[in-house]
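ok trying again, last paste got cut off:
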Amino acid sequence: MKGVIFDVDGVIIDVRDSYHTAILETIKYFSDKEMTKEYVREYKYKRAINNDWDVTYELLRKSGISVEYDRVVEVFESIYRENRDKERLLLTRDFFETLKERDIPLGVVTGRPKEALMYAFRKFNLLDIFDITVDEDDIEDPFLRKPNPFPLHMAVEIMGVDEFIYIGDTPADGDMIYFYRKMYGKPCKLIHYKEVQDMVDIGADMTAVNKDQLLNLLLSEVSLNREVERGYLP
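nice, full thing came through this time. structure:
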């Protein structure tokens, strides 16, 4: 059986006015330095940094500002919570229900903290959609968190699928899939969902630029897989 696993930020949810704003405002809080979202995204993507706290901390250090990491997180989270209701859905409930109607196992692997993930899924009525969600707080060891492939391996094993498709949008997603293939070996494909982010190559097997194209691609991939399983194709 083939499952489908999603990243959240930039794939399910547009976070340009929440997380990306929090990066800019946290940097400004400590340094009075103005940066653009385009610069921040380019820095984050080209260095394959998954965690926005880490991106903020590194950009402050790059600007010559020395701040305790925990203090950066504290200010960041305060600003993020003020802006998180500006988030909007990229992939709607109807999108996921179409997949569920075909008995496709669905999962999430994200670097979001659990509280932020649950808040967003509750707000957008997605809490009951996924068979498994693996977030930042599910992985105690920081070195095993995304883009380490361990969270993905954990989701795949709990879902009980033989192979899967992962939908991501950043080089960190590409790295996670690359190392998953080396370490765990189950067949998998990576789709780069480009509705928000298409500025860098993430090493994807396929691409989709909007939700309709993504849905058709997923349905085609899963249908092809089932035809092979049933012996209709060589």
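cool. DSSP finds nine helices and eight strands in the chain. The first strand starts at residue 2 and ends at 6.
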